[in-house]
Write a structure and sequence with these properties.
The protein has 553 residues and is mostly helical. 47% of the residues lie in helices and 7% in strands. The N and C termini lie far apart (75 Å).
């Protein structure tokens, strides 16, 4: 049976703005650029036609004064491989999503039907809005050569060739389109359920932007996409724990709303993420088995998260019903949805009669849509649950598996499965049951991004940042405490109860693999076997008191 009307709706923006579809971070960042330019609102583009590869090629060739020496074949290959984000690349139905997000105005050239962010751009913007410095830094980076008042573009002398080409496209084609904020979709700020992931994202973005004068623009943009995906994944993993707990307890911890700014153990988030990562990345090892167990624990929590989201969504619809009748708490802040706290209040005793009547009608509608109820639904009706629980259990029977599948695909995409920067891996085919086993990993690109933001620390006596060496054990501690990433020890909880004897050998092997990975990407050189001299050296020298850790010759 397909649930009709509002009965099957699931998504609730108070939990996440994302529509739980597979995400592509190029398209997410492109849509975020429009929100950066329009102060949180999406853009509304008026354009004559859909842009294909040939349109971009012809625009280059048409303006030979700007693009001197461009021949058609080379231009077509360069445009398709370096400038454009293509959907179904290399297939018969290949089409253009838009230019790669190397400059702020590339969102004006995207084909919106092929470049859908599924709400991830809004989720990122609201997380970044926790700190105006992060939003300002991103605007200055992506729109550094644009006059904010006039929109005029003045490329700098160090602008790379891809960005130069995109800037010329903006200037040459600017009169053929209209760009304005979509006022039909006004921004409705709502703080995340736990502020800590948003605060960490803002801090890491500002630290990564410190590198903009030290690395190619294309590399920094790729690192930003990796960082965005990483923090989106950590936020939603935290929601997988927080939301069911909030339903069970009837409230969101006040410390989560504030962001856990204290340093004591009592102020640590009770829903923090703890993952064990397989650094070597080779299936079949003991470390890989531990990483598979860690992933299994988290993915098994998803059905309860789906049910909790359904419950919040349906309580929100109940709040709308009460507001229409002039009763109940309504919706605050001009939002078209109830906050989580407002929804949870509707589970109180004072609303029992109204709640039972509302959800009894809905449960009856579900039953009336079926001539013969499935055995599972009959069993639900025989449990004598209260109408709210009966209704949501029915919804889980009909739609729970579908939404679990959609959330898993979305989470996999945020964890960049099978992509550079991945935090999770899964065999493509293979041997029996192991073929579907996911395991948490640490891809080299993600490690490099985390190193770049971690090796920047505040200078003594000032608020500026500077690079400085860091001992390997200090960095491993930072990964555990800041991000919940465990490499040389097992997490406390989240499926683990302590390391057994055979686990100790796996942890030592994982630590060795971590040193090898650092060596491979150029951040570590063996100077001694002594533990305290195992030092990570920054790749870039930033700040007045910066040190690389290199020994003078």
């Amino acid at each position: 049976m397909a649930l009709t009307g509002s009965l099957g709706t699931f998504h609730h923006p108070g939990v996440s703005r994302i529509d739980y579809k597979p995400l592509d971070m190029d398209r997410v960042l492109t849509a975020l650029l429009a929100r950066l330019w329009h102060d949180g609102r999406p853009s509304k583009i008026s354009r004559d036609k859909t842009l294909e590869v040939e349109v971009f090629v012809n625009l280059f060739l048409k303006h030979s004064k700007v693009f001197d020496g461009f021949d058609r074949n080379t231009t077509a290959r360069w445009t398709a491989t370096h400038l454009l984000d293509l959907v179904n690349r290399g297939r018969a139905d290949e089409s253009v999503a838009g230019p790669r997000p190397l400059h702020g105005f590339v969102y004006r050239f995207r084909n919106s039907r092929k470049s859908r962010p599924y709400g991830a751009d809004e989720q990122l913007y609201e997380m970044l809005a926790v700190d105006d410095g992060a939003l300002k830094g991103l605007r200055e980076f992506f729109f550094s050569d644009v006059d904010r008042s006039t929109g005029a573009i003045t490329p700098g002398p160090d602008t790379d060739v891809e960005t130069q080409a995109l800037l010329h496209l903006v200037e040459l084609a600017g009169g053929q389109m209209q760009d304005r904020p979509d006022n039909g979709k006004p921004r409705t700020p709502y703080p995340p359920l736990c502020a800590e992931p948003a605060q960490l994202l803002c801090q890491d973005v500002m630290r990564l932007l410190y590198h903009q004068d030290h690395m190619p623009r294309t590399v920094l943009v790729d690192h930003l996409k990796t960082l965005f995906a990483f923090h989106l994944a950590l936020y939603h993993l935290r929601m997988v724990k927080l939301l069911p707990a909030a339903l069970a307890n009837g409230t969101v911890p006040a410390s989560c709303r504030k962001g856990h700014t204290g340093t004591t153990a009592a102020d640590c988030c009770p829903h923090q993420v703890r993952l064990f990562l397989d650094v070597e990345g080779a299936p079949g090892t003991r470390a890989a088995g531990l990483a598979e167990h860690s992933a299994e624990v988290w993915y098994r929590r998803i059905p309860r998260f789906v049910q909790a989201t359904y419950q919040i969504k349906k309580l929100d619809e109940f709040a709308e019903h009460l507001a229409a009748q002039g009763d109940g708490p309504g919706r605050s802040g001009g939002r078209n949805y109830a906050t989580l706290e407002e929804a949870l209040r509707l589970l109180g005793k004072s609303y029992v009669k109204q709640r039972d009547s509302f959800f009894q009608q809905r449960a009856t509608r579900v039953r009336d849509e079926e001539r013969d109820l499935p055995p599972e639904v009959k069993q639900i009706t025989q449990l004598k649950l209260d109408p709210f629980d009966e209704y949501t259990e029915m919804l889980m029977h009909y739609r729970g598996r579908y939404y679990r599948s959609q959330f898993v695909k979305c989470l996999d995409s945020m964890l960049l499965k099978h992509r550079p920067g991945a935090l999770i891996a899964q065999l493509r085919g293979g041997h029996g049951g192991d073929a579907s086993a996911r395991r948490f990993i640490l891809d080299a690109r993600l490690l490099e991004v985390l190193l770049q933001v971690s090796l920047l620390r505040e200078e003594t006596g000032g608020g500026n940042l500077a690079t400085a060496p860091m001992r390997v054990d200090e960095f491993l501690t930072l990964l555990r405490d800041r991000y919940g990433l465990h490499i040389d020890r097992l997490p406390e909880g989240d499926g683990f109860t302590g390391a057994h004897l055979d686990d100790q050998a796996a942890l030592r092997a994982n630590s060795t693999a971590f040193l090898n990975r650092l060596r491979e990407i150029g951040y570590y050189q063996d100077m001694s076997d002594a533990y305290l001299t195992q030092t990570i050296t920054p790749r870039y020298t930033i700040g007045t008191a910066a040190r690389t850790g290199a020994t003078p010759r």
